Amino acid sequence: MQELLDKVASYLPAEKVVLVRSALDYATRAHKGQRRRSGGPYIEHPVSAATYLADLSLDAPTIAAALLHDVIEDCGVSLEELRTEFGDEVARLVDGVTKLAKLDTLASDEVEPLRAADDAQAESVRKMLVAMAEDIRVVLIKLADRLHNMQTLGALSPARRVAISQETLDIYAPLAHRLGMGEIKWQLEDHAFRYLQPSQYRAISKLLASKRREREAYVEQVTDVLSGELKRAGFEAEVSGRPKHIYGIHTKAQAYEAQGKELKDIYDLFAVRVLVPTVQDCYGVLGVVHMLWRPVPGQFDDYIASPKENMYQSLHTSVRSIGGLPVEVQVRTHDMHEVAEYGVASHWAYKNGVSPKRQRSEERMTWLRQLLDWQRDVSGTEEFLETVQTDVFRDQVFVYTPKNEIKELPSGSTPIDFAYRIHTELGDRCIGAKVNGKLVSLDTQLRNGDTVEVLTSRVARGPSLDWLNKDLGYIRTANARHAVRAWFRRQERGASVERGGDLLKRELRRLSSRIDESAVAKMFHYDSMDDLYAAIGGGLVSMAQVAVRVAEAQRKAEPEPVSESDSESDSARAAMDGPTTGVRVLGAGDLLTRMAECCHPLPGDAITGYVTRTRGVTVHRTDCANLGSITEADRIVAVSWSAEQTLFPVRLQVDAFDRVGLLHDITGAMSVERINLHGSRTEVSGGGVTVHLTAQVSSLEQLSRLFSRLEGVRGVRNVTRESQQPPRQAAGAAAPERGPQA
User: Fold this and answer.
1) What is the pLDDT of residue 259?
2) What CA–CA distances, in Å, run from 520 to 33, 84, 692, 719, 728?
3) Which residue segment(s) compose the domain that 504 sits in?
């Protein structure tokens, strides 16, 4: 408590410190006798949150509100009493934080249904963004509150630790990033990562510790050389190593692995930060760095000339430094560094009144006002959460119209997203696009500085339903997706019902699913089949969502009873070779398992195991016809899918019009999904061709994405999954297995 008072006294005048001291005394009395789950006195929590905000030099009302933010909810204090004691400003801030706390989806140990929890979380986020628009300090207090909760999360049950960590990673850390608060962002991410993926967290921590001396010695060598060079050039610069954060390394590791690089390559990338007095010095330092070491091509970003929407400014470059190792160098002014670390909070720091920087900060929060406008148009909380996660909590790109007007879009946006950002009618009439004067496909991802021209039809044809298929990548922003859905909702319901019914039947058929359509309707909480069809035909429910829900239902399905016959079929004994299958034999530990080639089960399929005499356990789909020929029921065992990621073979049948390059385009679509082609066979009849493929996929969800890719290939008429080979007849069955008896 004394540390908090000393900090506020170091930058606030005496009359303001009195307010903070009064709030501290009041909170101490109100929370007297209360204890946290960790066993410590409850007052530790508001004091810790307030101390973090004092580190940011925030004003006295914000510090006082942080100290009092739990007294209404936990101590029975009324809002009117707070207003009388501390004034309207403090009471308003406490009320705003209290409203957010009441909507916290993770405040209870009770396990809520998934849909109800999603709705509550979406409503919580909606309230938070409204609070931001009214007074950003409410959210600064909430972030400080969440940071201390994450620091003391170990006292809660494992289930709550995971749930709170996931919400922190999904909502609070991206929110801190959007507000430019890099320092609190990385702390929230690291704490959440620790509980969500403890083994990866420990592995990276251990690796960082093992190479710490080596890394620090190299960075010190680089900073010494650069500092000397800058001093000789006449620059007054502060050069230091930039610390790496565990979650940031984890995300970079995933990106490296996707490029085929090894995890250890990341730790050869070092980072140095240079702080200088003026913007002119920033560019001068950049010149010195590039003269000293050779820059890495394509690794330069100028966020000073083009700041990020969260107000971040800096020059980024990567160079081949001492020993040829790649080093990232960031160059910025001291003011820019303050904004990079503390974001919008730095503009609310106490500086004897409203600073020009605070006014500029509020002017640049246009994305927040825009979001609040959009939230009035969305039809439900699920769509609102989608908007938040795609259009707000994602890095931005800046592109130009043909008239040189700049438009901000989330990273990964396409020409269709751009068209809908300009005007809904322009998006509805979009038939093509030019980027930098060249025709491009509508799923092309835009980059910073691109000039985009939208090509339109003379008549309003309307959007394509394929645009809503996330697997095809035509639309990346929730704003555009809402507009397309709205167009289809305006169409005649009868057409939507017919279209949706056809799409659902095709999806279930190509997945070879035994799930009934009425069961699918219940999964999405629709009372009638027509309502489900209309939702699918109108774009409210995508085929990707159907595939995920169906796969989940099939995982939970109980294995069906198996009938008896004379002997094990030859097909059941012929199984896929491989070191692992991702299948766990219940009650038997690590037993050798193989995928039956007769039915090729995939994760998500209901499965049954058969104990062979020489080949371990053969895994079949429960509806496999070959299981009907088995007489020894005691050799049937229960099996389930494990969490291990493994590849499984699946046979597909592609019916298409024959043309030159067809097979090339089919394999190209598979490579986009990173799916390996195990084998292929073609049958030609007239002008048509049937291609039989054996692909290696990881799940039904990935298979569904592959269907979407293949159906987009020119000339392809239909794609289905070949469920299994015909069951063998008794006369044609292979001789019984020989060797040791089971």
Assistant:
1) 61
2) 52, 56, 29, 21, 33
3) 491-556
